[in-house]
Amino acid sequence: MTENETPEGVEESKAATRGHIAAGRTTLGIELGSTRIKACLIDPEGTPVAGGSHEWENQFVDRVWTYSLEAVWTGLQDAYAALVADVEASYGVRPRTFAAIGVSAMMHGYLAFDEHDELLVPFRTWRNTSTGQASAELSELFGHNIPLRWSIAHLYQAILDGEAHVPAIASVTTLAGYVHRRLTGRHVLGVGDASGMFPIDTATHDYDTRMLAAFDALVGDRGPGRPLVDLLPQVLVAGQEAGRLTAEGAALLDPSGTLAADVPLCPPEGDAGTGMVATNSVAPRTANISVGTSIFAMVVLEKPLAQVHHELDLVTTPSGDLVAMVHCNNGASELAAWADLFGQFAAALGSPAGADAVFGALLREALAGDADGGGLLAYNYLSGEPITGLTEGRPLFVRTPDSRLTLANFMRTQVYGAFGTLSLGMRILAGEGVEVDAMYAHGGLFRTAGVAQRLLAAAVDAPVAVGSAAGEGGAWGIAVLASYLGAAHEQDLGTYLSTRIFARAQVDVVEPDPHDVQGYAAYLDRYVAGLAVERAAADAL
């Protein structure tokens, strides 16, 4: 209960929410992130009213980062069941239907199916960096940067390597596209997620036809034996209905049989698109930064970039507008590993604390560190990092004998390390003359008020805004996109977000501190110089 709420007001609000749930006026969003599958239920105004989650982790099998499809459905069912339990505990009613459903997931990667919808090879996630030859050849052919993790790079690399499954390919999609197809029977994808599979023509909001033809001519009879466009999902934009929940899909999501079929679904989107929605960053000169297992910045452009940069992806908003994306494979996972270690230490001392409490204490300590991190150096590279040219990663903490090793400096350095690669990509955008009014940040790292936000402002040398829904993340974002189905006929997405979803949102903006900016710049110089150590570690270990 907030300061201005009365017990009577709270009960009235709960009763209204109970009515929305019982009448099927709430909207469900599900996002499959790298470490957690989250389900979020929102009311007609976009306010989260219930949630559920399931922890999962990728596996490194035969030198491939992957998740099994069994883990996908176990996790989805668990997250949905947790949400239903939350609804029942909070409102005394069990949801049987929804106004709409949306599915989002990690972008990119490679899911290839035969004509019977059987998976041909294990899911290859965005984390895999084994597509160097394909990426380079396609980037040159198209005159358009094709990052290592894009679906088309994975497909072409499989063709180059003569993989046995290639002739049997009947469709290729992303994780969100796969889940959506199982729920609805439709092979479709939101334009934002599709733009991480193959380049999009922003004039048509569809795959670039010149590049499709160039690819088909390049592979000839080495490929699956049908035009590429026949393999890829149909592209849809925000606000278009993307199918309805089938009886089979309802049973997959809710094996109890309570969930009814025929619920409309919005186009499935990637986590980049839901991040833009969750931070109201879909208009030109807006930008957002998402921090999770990976970290990426999305900057909505006013005009195309002058040059092709291998460090930058060109993708789109869920409405199809051009976006420059700085995507770093490694985000907050190494920081979380250190927090877990310190939590174990606290428990060994007889003072156990919850993960959030440990994380919060360590992050707050970082503010007391030297502006440059005291001469310490941290790399969060659990996997390869294309921006810095590394195909494999080794987490490292390095210091010189004259460095100042304190807990505050150690933690500041770990946070700086999470932002290091991102800063290098943002420098390139600044060199292109790209300007933003503010960077909106979201992700669990920002639940501890004022810490990561302040240090991120130093890293990007720009104001960083964090909204009240920053911790809700992509599950809330895709729920909002699903709710937009009912308003798309009268408002564009940007107007809908500004006037309906974020009209009363509380946003905290932190300006970059000049002392922090100077200290971070010194740290980043040391970070760039030390990349030689990271490369040597990957070679030696």
Keywords:
seven-stranded mixed β-sheet, globular, Nucleotidyltransferase, domain 5, five-stranded mixed β-sheet, alpha/beta, FGGY_Carb_Kinase, 3 domains, transferase, single chain, Carbohydrate kinase, FGGY-like protein, 541 residues
Could you please describe the fold and organization of this structure?
InterPro entries: ATPase_NBD (IPR043129), FGGY_C (IPR018485), FGGY_Carb_Kinase (IPR050406), FGGY_N (IPR018484). This protein is an alpha/beta fold. The chain folds into three domains: 237 residues, Nucleotidyltransferase, domain 5; 147 residues, Nucleotidyltransferase, domain 5, CATH 3.30.420.40; 111 residues, no CATH class. The chain has 18 helices and 22 strands. Strands 16-17-15-14-20-21-22 form a seven-stranded mixed β-sheet, with helices on both faces. Strand 4 and strand 5 form a beta hairpin. The longest helix is centred in the C-terminal third of the chain and has 25 residues. The chain starts with 6 loop residues before the first helix and ends with a helix.
